[in-house]
Write a structure and sequence with these properties.
With about 240 residues, the chain is α+β, with helices and mostly antiparallel strands. Helices cover about 15% and strands about 40% of the residues. It has a domain of about 90 residues. The longest helix is centred in the first third of the chain and has 21 residues.
């Protein structure tokens, strides 16, 4: 393809994408007030915006069941509408006390939920994005701890004391993954279980992960063993996690 034609095609694509984004209409589905720890912003809130066509009823109907094309009735008007103009991706905004948006992040999926972690530090946000496909063992609801600063939304990572390496925290609920908060501890602790196959598919491994938060930073502890687990089985006891 000649270079001029290629450049023109990219320009058209960019203009169409911008026009489509301008057509998106959003509604605030969650708003969380944060403690005024940002000196250059002051009191602020984090809010989640969803395509207005994804009403509370539709979100409940789709949540955890797959993409709209899988979850909705093909005979419905909304299915036809989404076929012509798919739902817009959700987005996060940081808003100051005067109502000015000072931070924004466009997500890569239309369905999401936002809540405050609370406890040790209620400025930690839990963003859950619905990557469910309606099939498969590994895609599902993925939760990411976030923090909001004047620089925007930052993903939270955890330090592995053994390797001294940091890694992002990703908490997944799917057919072969699950997580939950640890009970009976003063500090914030999260237990995460992954069941993953060997590269040759000959067997499966269970990856037990414990995340702890000491009020300043997160730590991650892991151990692995041979085994198989799916979400219709009981979640392991706390003692199984390192």
């Amino acid at each position: 393809m000649p270079r001029k034609v290629l450049i023109f095609a990219w320009l058209v694509f960019g203009l169409c994408s911008a026009a489509r984004a301008a057509e998106c209409k959003y509604a605030v589905t969650e708003r969380i007030m944060l403690r005024p720890t940002m000196r250059d912003v002051g009191a602020a809130s984090a809010q989640l915006l969803i395509d207005t066509r994804l009403t509370a009823r539709i979100r409940d109907e789709m949540w955890g069941h797959g993409d709209w094309s899988f979850a909705l009735d093909p005979r419905s008007e909304l299915y036809k509408d989404f076929s012509a103009f798919p739902p817009c991706n959700a987005k996060l905004q940081g808003v100051d006390r005067a109502g000015k948006v000072f931070a924004e992040r466009v997500l890569d999926h239309p369905l999401a939920k936002l809540e405050a972690l609370g406890g040790a530090d209620n400025n930690i946000l839990l963003l859950t994005v619905d990557y469910s496909t309606g099939m498969g063992s590994y895609a599902g609801l993925t939760t990411i701890p976030l923090q909001l600063s004047s620089q925007g939304f930052q993903d939270t990572d955890a330090l592995n004391p053994g390797t001294q390496q940091r890694e992002p925290i990703r908490l997944v609920k799917s057919l072969k993954s699950d997580w939950r908060f640890s009970k009976g501890t003063k500090e914030v602790e999260i237990l995460s279980l992954w069941c993953r196959p060997e590269p040759d598919g000959s067997s499966f491994n269970l990856i037990f992960t414990r995340y702890t938060f000491d009020g300043k930073q997160w730590f991650v502890h892991k151990r692995q063993e041979k085994g198989f687990w799916e979400s219709d089985q009981p979640f392991p006891q706390q003692s199984a996690f390192p």
